[in-house]
Design brief:
Elements lengths: L4 H6 L37 H4 L2 H13 L4 E5 L2 H10 L6 E5 L4 H13 L3 E5 L4 H10 L4 E5 L11 H11 L2 E5 L4 H4 L9 E5 L13 E5 L4 H14 L5 H11 L2 H20 L4 E5 L9 H7 L7 E6 L2 H11 L4 E2 L9 E3 L1 H5 L9 E5 L5 H18 L1
Parallel strand pairs: 2-3, 2-4, 4-5, 5-6, 10-11
Antiparallel strand pairs: 1-7, 6-7, 8-9, 9-12, 11-12
Helix pairs in contact: 3-10, 4-5, 6-7, 11-15, 13-15
The structure holds pyridoxal-5'-phosphate.
Length: 384
């Protein structure tokens, strides 16, 4: 029986302690595993860095089921998950990545990726013609996409990108952090690997750093190198993080539905605001990515949007300083709404527009969030 995401997350697969039946199963903190009288390892686990802790299996299986995959790996952060994929590629591998995506990965690729011998080709985000041309230009190991992409929320057609990758013999990997498996399942659209920063919506409470990778079994060679990479380089989370993550995930579907509904109403309000040049949110009918987003996202468009303000950098920066409910902080995907002047955060090399504030909608009352940004924009315009 294939179960709905609501049912899957609510009971976190129902895992309990095998001896007492305690639900949820207790956290296992031991890093080593004692051999039995026959010198065998009771659960085929020897050491926590190598096989993780017993609590990993439940979270990994839950992630695999939510993404319609066959196998998942918990990682110590979203960046650990991203970089493990690139570190598992042989030196000299050519990779095609978007110009605008999560900035930490751009920065890593431009420094360590290039230093370690990767041929990194950046293409305009979401541009299928540019992706196709880059893939045809030379043999390519990996196409990486993120959709909607941080922080401009440009949309990439996952199924079309998967076709281009398949034709070129490249693996398609998708950063699915923002849509979450509630709104998009990239493996079903042809991706071979899905990556998550579990720090964001999956945990959802701003108190865990963790990441994950999921596969559908279509890229066994790369996947086994990634498994070995995690084991030997040690990008494993702690047992407490794994436990907190499965606890946060138990409310994932209800949080995402509420957040996506609120974000759409919020985006609609500010897209009509006289002090606003544009709101980037794929859920808006006027958004350039809306049609593609509608075809590959189900049940909502997640909670991330960016507001481009008239008056340039000063007004944007002052707006980010003038909110009372929105916390002026980086990150996304928690219950508390956040606002950030992304250009200031990213620093040198940033491609974020200077008149833009990035917003993560949480679970507060929508009308109160709208009123808060309204007053912040008014105040910013008198100060700037
Ligand atoms: C936060 C984030 C990452 C990095 O995840 P960490 O858990 O912070 O390492 C990668 N991609 C996206 C889209 C993110 O939002």
């Amino acid at each position: 029986m294939s179960l709905s995401p609501d049912t899957l997350v609510a009971r976190a697969l129902g895992g309990r302690a095998s001896d007492t039946g305690a639900f949820p199963a207790p956290v296992s903190l031991g890093v080593t595993y004692v051999r039995d009288a026959d010198y065998r390892l009771p659960a085929a686990m020897a050491y926590q860095r190598d096989q993780g802790s017993p609590g990993f299996a439940q979270v990994e299986q839950l992630l695999a089921e939510l993404e319609h995959g066959t196998d998942a790996l918990l990682m110590s952060s979203g960046m650990a998950a991203c970089t493990a994929v690139f570190q598992a590629l042989p030196a000299g591998s050519r990779v095609v990545v978007p110009q605008v995506m999560y900035f930490g990965l751009t920065k890593w690729l431009r420094t360590f990726g290039v230093d370690q011998g990767l041929d990194v080709v950046e293409v305009p985000t979401g541009d299928l013609d540019a992706i196709g041309a880059a893939l045809r230009a030379a043999p390519t190991a990996l196409l990486w996409i993120e959709t909607p992409a941080n922080p401009t929320w440009a949309v990439t057609d996952v199924a079309a990108a998967a076709d281009l990758a398949a034709t070129a013999g490249a693996v398609l990997a998708v950063d699915n952090t923002v849509p979450t498996p509630v709104h998009t399942n990239p493996l079903r659209l042809g991706a071979g690997i899905v990556m998550h920063s579990c720090t964001k919506y999956l945990n959802g409470h701003d108190d865990v750093v963790a990441g994950a990778l999921v596969t559908d079994g279509s890229v066994p060679e790369l996947w086994s190198r990634i498994q070995l990479q995690r084991q030997l380089a040690g990008q494993v989370p702690g047992s407490l993080e794994a436990y907190l993550l499965q606890r946060g995930m138990r409310t994932l579907t209800v949080r995402m539905r509420a957040i996506s509904q609120s974000a759409l109403a919020f985006a609609e309000h500010f897209s009509e605001h006289p002090a606003v040049e544009r709101v980037a949110y794929p859920g808006l009918i006027s958004d350039p990515g809306h049609k593609v987003a509608q075809s590959q996202m189900t049940g909502g468009y997640s909670g991330m949007l960016s507001v481009f303000l008239r008056g340039g950098r000063e007004v944007a920066l002052e707006t980010a300083k003038a909110t009372e409910l929105f916390l002026p902080a980086t990150s996304l995907g928690g219950t508390a709404s956040l606002i950030e002047h992304r250009f200031t955060f990213e620093g040198p090399g940033s491609r974020s527009p200077e008149n833009m504030v990035r917003i993560s909608i949480g679970l507060e009352d929508t009308a109160e969030l709208i009123a808060d940004l309204d007053q912040a924009i008014s105040r910013a315009r008198t100060v700037a």
